[in-house]
Write a structure and sequence with these properties.
Blueprint: E1 6-10, E2 14-19, E3 26-33, E4 40-44, E5 52-54, E6 60-62, E7 68-71, E8 74-76, H1 80-88, E9 94-98, H2 111-120, E10 122-128, E11 132-133, E12 138-142, E13 145-150, E14 155-161, E15 170-175, H3 178-185, E16 191-193, H4 194-202, E17 215-218, E18 221-223, H5 233-246, E19 253-260, H6 264-288, H7 293-297, H8 317-321, E20 335-340, E21 343-349, H9 369-385, E22 393-405, E23 414-425, E24 428-437, E25 440-453
Parallel strand pairs: 4-9, 11-19, 14-19, 16-17
Antiparallel strand pairs: 1-10, 2-3, 3-9, 4-5, 6-7, 7-8, 12-13, 13-19, 14-15, 17-18, 20-21, 21-23, 22-25, 23-24, 24-25
Helix pairs in contact: 1-2, 1-5, 5-6
């Protein structure tokens, strides 16, 4: 990807049909050119609304065995192979039309999508694209996965993969360019272990799965309809998934990714942290730069499209900052994953570079309980301020009751904040919140806050 400074799209449409991995039904997909600054967008042409879902990490809804994007009631499953193919060739703007909730599985690799892109050809656009550069080390750990990103002139991925028992351990490293993507990664097929198949079949997750589109590992035997395409095909497919998931940052990456036993959840977690690092200089510049003459005379007005009665989710950090006045280092919410009536779910990535870890406590970092309480208050504020009647207001924390801290929260944890609005009378509202890490409750409280004009 080095040297790609211009945005790129497809020169013409290209189509492909096949079987959906989850449904087992016939699925058709078309790749279409898109204008500059569009990004990659999935379009569900089988729905009356022709719903569009931007390929952004803020729209990730599920990461169990594949990556699922959603927006409103529309979703698209198993997007990582299509996204990897577009990213691998440097395509920054494209519309992916689907007549189902998933792309065709093809042969279990990204190779069929590479053929589509070759057929469509790539067209360079006049507008430039600004890469996201890793400026300082980032680390993300989750469920036995360890991932890091460090500065690098280019985009390099080093990955180690194995199963829980350490079988079929493989290591591979690649400097990603369109050439190495096509020759070293794109043809690596998905794989699963034999003992997993019963669960997948029982839950209807692989109705379209077969040895034609996946490799099955049983004990020490590898079941496949053709010879292995690469000696390290398993780990190369893991790298393929990493490329697809990290493309959800929405721009070319400059950095060295090191992954140990990666999975979709951890891949997307690292993508969120990369975006978080990339946005900090912008936030700092906005915070410390003097306002221009016109903005100094006029009060800040929220964007109408960001404050409504609709229960749209998810929201990324940029959208959250259009609702809340908080900024780094006191913004305690990274994303909102669900809004449903009087309920909301949000997340906070707890990273080792949080400023409070320097003194709380050296050698034994723990997230202060009062900041978990602050996170609950901010999430409750988002829920309330999203309502159209509250446009332009600000939520002030008044009191907390029934506060309990049950377990420590440490660097690497993803703090999930679930809030329910209990009542709202006039300017005063009350909400109940629970914070969890990995499904275990770490803190809970009932908070009261008031709304006032800014």
């Amino acid at each position: 990807m080095r040297g790609v400074l211009q945005q790129q799209t497809l020169a013409r449409p290209a189509g492909f049909s096949g079987i959906g991995l989850h449904s087992g039904n016939k699925v058709s997909m078309t790749l279409l050119p898109a204008p500059p600054n569009t990004g990659v967008v999935f379009r569900r042409v089988d729905l009356d609304s022709r719903a569009e879902i931007p390929a952004q990490v803020a729209n990730v809804a599920e990461t169990d065995r594949s990556t699922t994007l959603s927006r409103g009631n529309a979703k698209v499953q198993t997007v990582e192979h299509v996204l990897a193919a577009l990213y691998g060739f440097g395509v920054t703007n494209a519309v992916v039309e689907l007549d189902s909730s998933e792309p065709p599985v093809g042969d279990g690799s990204a190779w069929p999508f590479c053929k589509m892109i070759r057929e469509a050809d790539i067209e360079t656009q006049a507008e430039r694209v600004e890469p996201i550069e890793i400026t300082a080390p980032i680390e993300h750990t989750q469920d036995g996965t360890v991932m890091s990103a460090t500065p690098h002139d280019g985009f390099k991925i080093t990955c180690t993969s194995s199963d829980k028992g350490g079988r079929f351990t493989q290591l591979f490293s690649v400097e990603l360019t369109p050439e190495t993507w096509e020759s070293e990664i794109a043809q690596a097929r998905t794989f699963c272990f034999y003992e997993e198949i019963e669960y997948l079949i029982r839950n209807g997750l692989i109705r379209g799965g077969s040895l034609e589109n996946a490799i099955v590992i049983r004990d020490d035997a590898v079941l496949t309809t053709e010879p292995m395409r690469y000696r390290e095909e398993f780990v190369r497919h893991k790298i393929l998934d990493i490329i697809g998931d990290l493309s959800l940052v929405g721009a070319p990456l400059r950095g060295h990714i090191v992954a140990v036993k990666p999975g979709h959840a951890a891949n997307c977690g690292l993508a969120r942290r990369i975006l978080q690092q990339a946005r900090r200089p912008l936030v700092a510049a906005q915070s410390f730069s003097p306002p221009d003459e016109q903005s100094a005379r006029q009060p800040i007005q929220p964007k109408p499209s960001q404050v409504s009665d609709e229960t749209t989710a998810p929201l990324d950090s940029e959208q959250i900052m259009q609702i809340l006045p908080h900024r780094y280092p006191f913004l305690m919410v990274d994303r909102v994953t669900r809004i449903d009536g009087n309920q909301i779910t949000a997340e906070k990535n707890v990273t080792i570079d949080e400023p409070y870890f320097q003194g709380h406590f050296p050698g034994h970092p723990i997230m202060p309980g009062v900041l978990q309480l602050e996170a609950m208050a901010q999430v409750a504020g988002i829920l309330t301020l999203k309502q159209a009647d509250n446009a332009g207001k600000i939520a002030y924390f008044m009191s907390a009751e029934k506060v309990k801290w049950r377990k420590p929260v440490k660097p690497g944890d993803v703090l999930q904040i679930d809030m329910e609005l209990l009542r709202a009378r006039g300017k005063v509202a009350k909400a109940k919140g629970v914070c969890t890490v990995g499904g275990e409750v770490v803190s809970e409280a009932e908070i009261t806050f008031t709304l006032a004009r800014r």
